[in-house]
Specification:
The chain is 60% helix and 0% strand. It is mostly helical and 70 residues long.
Length: 70
């Protein structure tokens, strides 16, 4: 009984770790991709990315996926 409970607990902890690592990998990948115009000033994405990766977005490194008119 204790072995089964320990095995289930190990599975749950591993599952949560995989979710956390996958989420970080997703946001790190999204930060490096070209950004669409509608998302350029998206505060929601910035807040989620900061919470997940603990890194501020640097728009000097982001490449716009659209033509910028200065």
């Amino acid at each position: 009984m204790a072995f089964t409970l320990a095995l289930i607990a190990l599975f749950v902890v591993g599952w949560i770790a995989a979710i956390a690592l996958g989420t970080q990998a997703y946001f790190k990948g999204e930060i490096s991709k070209p950004i669409h115009e509608r998302n350029w000033n998206s505060e929601g994405f910035n807040q989620i990315a900061l919470a997940v990766t603990a890194e501020e977005l640097d728009y000097n490194e982001r490449v716009p996926g659209f033509t910028v008119n200065y």
